[in-house]
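Prefoldin subunit 5
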Amino acid sequence: MLVPLTASLYVPGKLDDANKVLVDIGTGYFVEKTMAEGKEYCERKINLLKSNFDQLIELASKKKTAADEAGAVLQAKLKQMVPAT
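Predicted structure tokens:
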């Protein structure tokens, strides 16, 4: 396995006890869990991230549509303000 030393540096490592793992729960905090519990935590975290990603994509799509509509209205108003030559 690869062990993180910094955000961009990983070194090879081996597990002493394959039944216990340390799980990074954020902000530098680690929790010791069994391998099954660690796997379950990671699966829940992945599902949460996928759900948040899907919601973010949907929101971004709505915002883009609103921005496109606002741009079209602005273009129409600018055409009305420019005198015809």
